[in-house]
Specification:
The chain is an alpha/beta fold and 344 residues long. Helices cover 38% and strands 17% of the residues. It folds into two domains: 205 residues, inorganic pyrophosphatase (n-terminal core); 122 residues, Diaminopimelate Epimerase, Chain A, domain 1, CATH 3.10.310. The protein binds manganese (II) ion.
Length: 344
């Protein structure tokens, strides 16, 4: 089965519904697995972890989820509440017999908590790596990476369906939330007919479409709204409007009442400008470190641009982190992006 490789860079599969047998077999052998996703988890990260954990719970199997304190944004706090999956403690990390890592391109991005970042928390145990990032490094003992899938939740749906696991209404809501947000409300080119078919199945299974829309799209807290004002005010355009970017310093983020965990989709502000082919967002959630989100529109890809600054992600949605404040990051990245666009 060529979708599964061990120990080397992940083979990128194309068909999201062709679930490698090794993935299901390896998870089925685990009794105390921990579901893990990336730092600053988005709805696809949370949805895929919780859906997996809920659907694989049995009398003799209790999956749990790794979620470091304070890592979930206020807007997505309803997801762990609905899912009701126990959160892993240090003791759970000791006794786990395997890990399922979802939506995470490399092991260093695993949201396992600061104290584990430098240690060998895997310690020889099996790791199943399920993801849709083209840059996934294949860090698992079993890897299933579908670069063209719009979300990891879409892959998890196919996995649960082919393993004949029960998808109840809450699990369907978890998966729908991830699919909806990672495709920007089913508006990105990654929204395939098959993804829409899966979304339809999830609605039939009881996904709470209206309430999810309310929570995900129409529930801005005052603090998030105030941060958006900053993002709008700081938006700049260069390259005759072909590049739009915005910034938020540590003081601006915290001054609005937000934190690093609340930085998620604000990139959509500069990205929404007509004619913007590259959008970038520079945010200093943690002082002295600037996270940069890159988005490409039309035929413009940004993965190479992000990779130039040590980052990764998808062809048209990527990120990087620089060890400097936003103004310095802008000075380094924007001129390079202008040149990059001129030759792409
Ligand atoms: Mn994702």
């Amino acid at each position: 089965m060529n979708e599964v490789e061990t120990g080397s860079a992940a083979a990128i599969a194309r068909d999201p519904s062709a679930v490698p047998a090794g993935v299901i077999e390896t998870i089925t052998r685990m009794r105390r697995p921990i579901m893990i996703s990336h730092v600053v988890p988005d709805a696809d990260a949370l949805g895929s972890m919780f859906a997996m954990a809920r659907a694989w719970t049995e009398p003799n199997r209790q999956p749990i989820a790794a979620l470091p304190d304070g890592s979930v944004s206020k807007r997505l706090a309803f997801m762990p509440e609905w899912a009701e999956i126990p959160i892993a403690t240090d003791a759970d990390f000791e006794s786990a017999d395997g890990f399922v890592v979802l939506d995470t391109a490399k092991a260093a991005r695993c949201g396992v908590g600061k104290e584990r970042k430098t240690g060998d928390w895997i310690a020889g145990r099996p790791v199943v790596n399920i993801d849709h990032h083209a840059t996934n490094t294949g860090f698992g003992t079993v890897n299933w990476v579908v670069g063209e899938a719009g979300s990891t939740c879409e892959l998890v749906y196919h996995m649960l369906a082919s393993a004949r696991r029960t998808i109840d209404a809450v699990t369907a809501s978890m998966l729908f939330a991830g699919m909806q947000t990672d495709t920007l409300g089913f508006s990105l080119p990654s929204t395939s007919a098959s993804a829409l078919h899966v979304a339809g199945e999830l609605v039939a299974l009881g996904a709470a479409v209206g309430e999810l829309g309310e929570r995900l799209c129409r529930s801005q807290r005052k603090s998030e709204f105030d941060l958006l004002r900053v993002i709008f005010a700081n938006t700049r355009i260069v390259a005759d409007g072909a590049i739009a970017y915005s910034t938020a310093t540590h003081d601006e983020i915290h001054g609005a009442g937000c934190s690093a965990a609340d930085i998620d989709d604000q990139i959509n502000v500069p990205r929404s400008l007509e004619g913007a082919r590259i959008a970038m967002l520079f945010t200093e959630g943690n002082r002295g470190k600037t996270r940069i989100n890159f988005r490409g529109s039309g035929n413009v890809t940004v993965l190479e641009l992000a990779a130039h600054f040590g980052g990764g992600g998808h062809q048209q949605s990527a990120g990087a982190i620089l060890d400097c404040p936003p103004d310095e990051a802008v000075a380094r990245v924007v001129p390079y992006a202008v040149e990059y666009l001129a030759r792409s």
